[in-house]
Design brief:
Blueprint: H1 8-11, H2 15-24, H3 26-40, H4 49-63, E1 68-69, E2 74-78, E3 82-89, E4 97-98, H5 102-110, E5 113-116, H6 120-124, H7 127-133, H8 148-160, H9 173-187, H10 196-202, E6 208-211, H11 215-223, H12 227-240, H13 244-257, H14 260-268, H15 274-295, E7 300-307, H16 317-323, E8 329-330
Helix pairs in contact: 2-7, 2-9, 9-12, 13-14
């Protein structure tokens, strides 16, 4: 089975993990940032050129980008006494991305209840527990589980990020994989507090809160994978490191343009394993549709914000709602 890397930041597959990683592994990201600063003060002749290229590209991509703005896609379904908005998010963004337009503000301000994938307070407190669940046992190291070729590629990827080879040795491959999908973004200037959920949370005083999943449920998606599949996932994550920032930037453009089809194509182009696609997206979307149908039985206006990957492509929340007879319309 091939497991292709899906960045939690962009696809929305694991909100809790994206935020918890950004918080729990802040020292590792800081180390990478410090290393980049040290390299910038060295003479170029003293630097390894392969490391210089990757680190400079990762740092410059966001720093050189001009402030952007757009109109991300928003959907609505309703019955006689309930309106539910569906908004696809990116969990971590650089500064100066202006996406909260009048259309979104109207829908958000009219909503009595705000719903995320998980409870945000729980996510922020999840770092230590998540690290514990992601640790290897019996003195193993993640590098000892790799082939010689994959270990060399892994160590080179960490070196390019300015992270010591042993920094993540004690963690299971799934944990290291998710780390590798976040570290290039953190190093390039993406910030958890600029992510859509954190911005909406800051505007949500007085609103009821709810969640579609728990942090443990999201961790289980990866922690229960067999070790051989975790190692394949890690190898794919290693290969994705050099292009991670550029890939997320492309997804961000589609998101800001409200192009759900274009976004789905970018997110799913490497997701060639139906079993994993269903595990991470389709099946979870079906559970969320159950939640939405139950919520429609009660009056009120609800704003649901989940990762953009769940509202695009095959098996999306909207398509499953429509299959069950609901009408979902785009808010223009």
């Amino acid at each position: 089975m091939t497991i292709k890397t899906l960045s939690p930041a962009a696809s929305g597959i694991t909100l809790a993990l994206a935020l918890a990683l950004a918080l729990a592994f802040a020292p590792v990201a800081a180390l990478a940032q410090d290393d980049a600063i040290d390299h910038s003060q060295m003479d170029h002749s003293q630097m390894d050129h392969s490391q210089m290229d990757h680190s400079q590209i990762a740092q410059s991509t966001v720093e050189a980008a001009l402030p952007t703005e757009g109109t991300p896609a928003l959907w609505r379904l309703s019955d006689e006494d309930t309106t539910i908005y569906l908004f696809g998010t990116i969990h971590i963004l650089p500064e100066n991305v202006n996406w909260f337009d009048d259309r979104l503000a109207t829908a958000f301000d009219a909503s009595d209840e705000l719903v995320f994938e998980i409870d945000m307070d729980e996510a922020q407190a999840a770092g230590p527990a998540m690290m514990q669940r992601g640790m290897l046992e019996n003195g193993q190291t993640v590098r000892s589980l790799m082939t010689e070729e994959n270990r060399a590629e892994y160590e080179a990827a960490l070196a390019d990020l300015g992270v010591p080879a042993a920094a993540l040795d004690q963690f299971e491959p799934w944990m290291v994989s998710l780390n590798l999908s976040m570290l290039p973004l953190l190093k390039a200037g993406y910030q958890p507090d600029q992510g859509v959920e954190m911005v909406l949370r800051g505007r949500a005083d007085g609103k009821e809160r709810a969640a579609l999943e728990t942090v443990d449920q999201q961790i289980d998606l990866f922690d229960t994978l067999p070790m051989d599949k975790q190692l394949v996932y890690l190898d794919d994550a290693v290969e994705a490191v050099p292009g991670m920032v550029d890939s997320i930037e492309k997804m961000k453009v589609e998101w800001l343009e409200g192009d759900a089809d274009g976004l789905a194509e970018l997110m799913n182009e490497d997701m060639d394993d139906p079993e994993i696609y269903d595990l991470l997206l389709t099946n979870r979307n079906a559970n969320w549709v159950d939640w939405i149908e139950h919520r429609l039985e009660e009056p009120g206006t609800v704003f649901i914000a989940v990762g953009a990957g769940h509202l695009a492509g095959r098996g999306s929340v909207q398509s499953q709602l429509e299959e069950r007879g609901h009408t979902v319309s785009r808010v223009q």
